[in-house]
TrEMBL record:
Ranges of residues in domain IclR-ED: 95-276
Domain HTH iclR-type, residue spans: 32-95
SMART domains: HTH_ICLR
Source organism: Pollutimonas bauzanensis
A Pfam family hit: IclR_C
Record bears the keyword DNA-binding: yes
A GO BP entry: negative regulation of DNA-templated transcription
Protein name, as recorded: Transcriptional regulator, IclR family
Transcription regulation listed as a keyword: yes
Biological classification of the source: Bacteria, Pseudomonadati, Pseudomonadota, Betaproteobacteria, Burkholderiales
Keywords of the record: DNA-binding, Transcription, Transcription regulation
GO molecular function: DNA binding; DNA-binding transcription factor activity
Source taxon at top rank: Bacteria
Length: 276
C-alpha cells in the first residue's frame, strides 16, 4: 500500500500523463507561494505597525490586488485580521500574539537558556545572540536575540540567517563538526568575500577555527558585510544538540573588551551545559 503525501504518492504512479503531472506540480508550487505570501503579510504589518488598505498591502507586497484580497478575506474569516474601520484598512487581531506567546512559552530550549542569556547581556552590555546551524540551508539561524542597552549597538532579530564563514557564531558552530564533515560542508559553499578581512578558503577557515579553539573565542571582527560590527562567540551543547552564543556590538567596543567578554561568555556556556 502507498504511504506518504498525496503528491508523493502520485509522483510514483507511472501511468500519469505529463499534463496531469505538470498540473499536480504547479498546484504544489502554488501552495508554497501562498504560504510564503501569508508570512509576508504578517511581516508587512510588523514593519508598518498601522492598519493597511488592500491597495497599500498589495503595493508593499508587489502583488496583484486580486490575490491579496483573497488572502485578506481568508485571514479575516479565520480571526487573524479585522477591519479597523470603514476604509481604514485591516490590522491583525490579538490572535497572532496569543498564539506566538503560547508557542514561545512551550519552547523546549529557549525558556531554559534565557536567564543565562539575559545575565550575559547585562554583564557585557552588548547584544547577545543564541544560534544554531541549519544543515539544510548551511547557514546560521538566530534563535533568540537580546538587545544591548546601548543606543549604538548591533541590531538583529530572531529568525535572521547568516553565512557561516563570515560570522563568529558560524565559526563556533563549524567547530562542533568533525573535520571531514566540516571540510565537506565548506567545499560545497560559495564563500563570498565581503571585504578584505573575510576568510574565503576552507583552509583559512580551518586555521582560524583551530586558533580560536586555542585562544578561547571565535571572532568576526569586521569580516562580514557590516565592517563596523564585531562579535565573539563560543559553542555549547544543550540537551544533546549543538548551539552557539555570541556577544556582538560596534567593532571598537568589542575589540577593546574582547578578553573580558570572552571569559564571561565561556562561563555562561559552561553553566548552561552543566545545569540545563
Amino acid at each position: 500500500m502507498w504511504t506518504g503525501t498525496p503528491l508523493g504518492i502520485l509522483r510514483h504512479i507511472t501511468y500519469l500523463t505529463p499534463a496531469i503531472r505538470t498540473m499536480i506540480e504547479k498546484k504544489a508550487d502554488t501552495n508554497v507561494k501562498t504560504a510564503l505570501r501569508v508570512i509576508e503579510i504578517i511581516e508587512v504589518f510588523a514593519r508598518e505597525t498601522k492598519p493597511l488598505s488592500l491597495s497599500e498591502l498589495a503595493r508593499h507586497l508587489d502583488a496583484p490586488v486580486s490575490s491579496c484580497l483573497a488572502l485578506l478575506r481568508t485571514l479575516a474569516s479565520l480571526g487573524y485580521l479585522y477591519e479597523a474601520g470603514r476604509r481604514q484598512g485591516y490590522y491583525p487581531t490579538g490572535r497572532l500574539l496569543a498564539m506566538a506567546q503560547r508557542i514561545s512559552k512551550a519552547d523546549p530550549i529557549l525558556g531554559k537558556v534565557l536567564p543565562s542569556l539575559e545575565e550575559l547581556r547585562d554583564t557585557t552590555c552588548e547584544t547577545v545572540v543564541f544560534a544554531k546551524l541549519d544543515l539544510m540551508s548551511k547557514r546560521v539561524v538566530y534563535l533568540d536575540v537580546l538587545a544591548s542597552p546601548h543606543p549604538i549597538s548591533y541590531v538583529a532579530v530572531a529568525g535572521s540567517q547568516r553565512d557561516i564563514h563570515a560570522n563568529s557564531l558560524g565559526k563556533a558552530l563549524l567547530s562542533t563538526l568533525g573535520g571531514e564533515e566540516r571540510r565537506a560542508l565548506l567545499s560545497g559553499l560559495k564563500l563570498q568575500a565581503y571585504n578584505k578581512r573575510t576568510l574565503v578558503t576552507p583552509e583559512a577557515i580551518e586555521a582560524d577555527i583551530q586558533a580560536s579553539l586555542e585562544r578561547g573565542w571565535f571572532a568576526n571582527l569586521g569580516e562580514s558585510i557590516m565592517e563596523d560590527v564585531g562579535a565573539i562567540a563560543w559553542p555549547l551543547k544543550v540537551s544533546g544538540n549543538d548551539y552557539a552564543i555570541s556577544v556582538a556590538g560596534p567593532l571598537y567596543r568589542i575589540e577593546s573588551h574582547v578578553e573580558d567578554h570572552a571569559k564571561k561568555l565561556r562561563v555562561a556556556c559552561r553553566f548552561m551545559e552543566q545545569n540545563i
